[in-house]
Structures are given as C-alpha cells and as structure tokens.
Amino acid sequence: xxxxxxxxRVRTVYLGSGxxxxxxxxxxxxxxxxxxxGVVTAPARPVGRHHVLTGTPVALLAAELGIPTVLTPERLRxxxxxxxxxxxxxxxxxxxxxxQIVPPALLDLLHGALNLHPSLLPRWRGASPIPATIAAGDxxxxxxLMRMDAGLDTGPLVAQxxxxxxxxxxxxxxxxxxxxxxxxxxxxxxxxxLDGALPAVPQSSDGxxxxxxxxxxxxxxxxxxxxxxxxxxxxxxxxxxxTYLELDGERLxxxxxxxxxxxxxxxxxxxxxxxxxPALATADGRLALLAVTPPGKRPMPGADWLRxxxxx
Length: 312
What we know:
The protein has 312 residues and is an alpha/beta fold. It folds into two domains: 10-210, Rossmann fold (3-Layer(aba) Sandwich), CATH 3.40.50.170; 216-310, Methionyl-tRNA Fmet Formyltransferase, Chain A, domain 2, CATH 3.10.25. The chain contains eight helices and 17 strands. The protein has helices at residues 22-30, 57-65, 79-86, 104-107, 129-135, 171-194, 227-236, 302-310; strands spanning 10-16, 34-40, 45-47, 52-54, 70-71, 92-96, 113-117, 125-126, 140-147, 157-164, 210-211, 243-247, 250-260, 271-274, 277-281, 286-293, 300-301. It has a seven-stranded mixed β-sheet. Strands 12, 13, 14, 15, 16 and 17 form a six-stranded antiparallel β-sheet that branches. It starts with 9 loop residues before the first strand and ends with a helix.
C-alpha cells in the first residue's frame, strides 16, 4: 500500500446493506481523514404485508447523513456497476455486511478495500459467523478488520479485538454489540492504515471454518441432539431462520428455552412436562420451552401454550 500525504482526507466508498454496518457508516462519515464520496448498498425490496418498497438500513442511514451518492446495483460485478463506483474516484473502500462479492477493480484501490467481519478470523469465515459462534458455544469471538483479497474472508488481518462471551447471547444482541465494537476498531485503525503505519498480517491456515447462508430448514430442532446444543440454536437462529418443532403438521416456533435434566422415562422427541412448562425430551436432557409462537398467533409464554393444549 502506498500512503498519501500525511493527514490528507481520502476519497472513500462504503459498501454495506445490513444493520451490522450502521455504526461503521456513522464513524466513517465523521472521520477527519475520510471524504465519504458514496455508499453502495443492495436495491430496495418489498417489505411487509403490503410489499412497501424499502431501502436497506444502510441506504436509510445514508439519506439521513446526507451522503450525496447512493448506488444500488443488483450485481456489483456488472461492468456498469463497477464503472459507476470508479467514477467516484475512490482511493479506499470500506465494507461491512454487504453480501456481494467485490470485484478486483475495487480491491486494487490505492488504499485497498477494508472489511469489518464479526468473528475471530480465521474461525467462522463466510455468511453467518454470529449464529455459528453462538451455536458452537464459543467462549470468545472478535471483531476483525482485514484487507480484502479475491477469497472469501481470506485477506490479511489489519486489526482484531477479541470479545469474551458469557454463554447467554442471542444473535441480535451479539450483532448489536459487535457492530459498535467494529465501528470503534475501524475508527482508531483508519489513520494508521492510511499513513502506511498499520501492516496487514496474513491469516493463519489453522482453525479455518467456512459458514454458509442459513436456510429455513436449519431451524428444525432435532431431538437426537443434546438439549444444550438445541438451546444454543434457539439463541443463535434469531431472527432467522428461527427454531421450531413440527407438531401435528404445524410449526411451533421456539423463541426462548432453557436446559433441564432428563428423567428416566423420557423418550427423545416426545413433549413432556417440566413443571408448568412444555419441554422437548432430547438425547441428553430436556429443552424447556419458556416462550413459543404458535401458528398465526403472537409469542406467548410456554406455560400458557401448554394450558391451551390441555383445554383442547
């Protein structure tokens, strides 16, 4: 990387779509070394029952911040999309929670392309690092700033901040926490990076795990697994794909659960009573259902759902 004049403001484009990238966009827009010339985000999509065309969280924040250029290409790798971005004459790209592969032309800017990633890279590369971290029961995660290369989260590390976990995190709460930490990491790293004082260190080849996009069927709770594993999934798969049981052909969504000891009469896959709560008997322990969402209804305490089942 070739540094520009010390202290000079650098023409920068930001690429992001999801909520994880919002604090970073705020930091970038306010950073004294950055001239934010544009934002690249996903196109607006129909949202809700009435299919109202709605921009991404990043697009909405960009409008609030008064960023003059917001590009919404369907495919960033399309030649016309690349040309639009390069027409802004950026020297730096910063990416967080964008969801598309970045073409080489944007990786090779004067100051490169930096990516904020919510995991302890090289562990949990790919599309769903936060759910994977919770589902695995990791005691630690991190926010990582890396220089992007042509691979999927394989670029060299610029900065990394470890984050201790207490074992009770849900995916939305952990994402919000990591988003703020990532923005702060970006804020204090940008100056040294632009001055050429912060090296990019190649990632280790040990401990690499690649995650994929989650699918609806991933949320089906399998009683052949342990209650502890399933409880982690309940926390990891919020809000998508959510976790659920198939009961009499209907889907019962599990929104909160806890682990309880097994009883000698338990048969994995059966619903049993854990005090006044319904519980799923598993291969090891019971998954007590603290809060559930029946089909077509609002979330309710598990005990209320169980009373309703008894009265049917």
